[in-house]
Design brief:
- The longest helix has 39 residues, at 232-270.
- By secondary structure, this protein is mainly alpha-helical.
- The protein has 2 domains: 1-98 and 318-330, no CATH class; 108-285, MetI-like (MetI-like fold), CATH 1.10.3720.10.
- It is flat.
- The protein contains 13 helices and no strands.
């Protein structure tokens, strides 16, 4: 039995099973998006404050307020507004912002590149920090180095973004003058936000990497490889790395969604013009379509990343492909 990628010409039944699995996951993704959309709609409208008053100001007369409320369709009963919202979602539209009358998706796409840039930079920083530390700690288990890595990762998990961000600004911007305090005009502006956002992820990823690699190093196939005289580096590269990669990638996929949501705080601290800042501004303005559209969009990205991570298992782990082929025979 081969462990290669399943070929439709050779394993048609296995391919059908994979397609069914993908279809099921897509249907589940759509259901979760609908559930999230419903759950966020009503709480958003319960936020204290009136968007019409926010737009016109406290001194606006009642006639202008009522006219604008009708123009924005906010005069309808809440359930009717909900049906309009679901109808727009089915049309793949979130509606228009109450404040600039632009399509919600157009506003999101304007701010999204900065958030993607920040998220990728934060994840890159987390990977560069966590993978070497986790692997070293696993190979030097119960040593002073292992204890130091464990302490550093625990500290990284304990420090929240809203504390770490200002601390980095005080040290590296105000005291040392190495990086700008806030903004997003150049490459120097990304360093502190990326470190702030990536620190907690790197701490968590370091612990996962250490645990997984430590478990793999205790497996019989590793002892056999060492008995053959292979160096520790070759043991890790040729035997341990692939088996340890799947839990690490799963964690990275889950943390990617967490980075998107965590970017709300980090972007606000550093005035980084991404969707996190847009969400905070929308909540302040009571811009219902923008709030709903942003939360649904962030949820979609989170679910999509996890969906792609699940699919990557077939490419990374031959044991999973073997299970699919075995299911095809039953």
């Amino acid at each position: 039995m081969t462990y290669g990628i399943i070929n439709p010409a050779i394993h048609p039944i296995g391919t059908i099973i994979m397609k069914r699995y993908i279809v099921k996951r897509i249907l589940l993704l759509l259901f979760l998006l609908f559930a999230v959309s419903t759950m966020i709609f009503f709480p958003v409208h319960l936020i204290p404050g009136d968007p019409v008053v926010k737009i016109l100001g406290e001194g606006a007369n009642s006639e202008d307020v009522e006219r604008l409320r009708r123009d924005l369709n906010l005069h309808k009963p809440l359930f009717h507004q909900y049906l309009d919202f679901i109808r727009r979602l089915l049309d793949l539209s979130f509606g228009k912002s109450l404040f600039n009358n632009r399509e919600v998706m157009a506003n999101i796409l304007k701010y999204l590149p900065n958030t993607i840039y920040l998220t990728i930079a934060a994840m890159t920083a987390a990977i560069l920090i966590s993978l070497p530390l986790g692997v070293l700690a696993a190979f030097k288990k119960e040593s002073l180095l292992d204890a130091a890595v464990t302490f550093i990762s625990s500290a990284g998990l304990a420090i929240p973004n809203f504390f770490l961000g200002p601390l980095l600004v005080i040290v590296f911007s105000i005291k040392l003058g190495w990086f700008p305090v806030s903004g997003c005009e150049g490459s120097k502006y990304i360093v502190l936000p990326a470190l702030t956002l990536g620190t907690s992820m790197s701490a968590f990823l370091t612990r996962i990497t250490r645990t997984v690699v430590s478990l793999e190093l205790q497996k019989p196939y590793v002892l056999l490889a060492r008995a053959k005289g292979l160096s520790e580096f070759r043991v890790f590269r040729e035997h341990v790395f692939k088996n340890a990669l799947i839990p690490v990638i799963t964690t990275m996929g889950l943390q990617f969604g967490a980075l998107l949501t965590g970017a709300v705080i980090t972007e606000t601290i550093f005035s980084w013009q991404g969707i996190g800042v847009l969400l905070v501004e929308s909540i302040t303005r009571r811009d219902y379509p923008m709030i709903q559209g942003l939360i649904v969009f962030i949820t979609f990205v989170y679910l999509l990343v996890n969906f792609l991570v699940d699919l990557s298992y077939f490419a990374l782990d031959p044991r999973i492909r073997k299970e699919v082929q075995r299911g095809a025979k039953l």
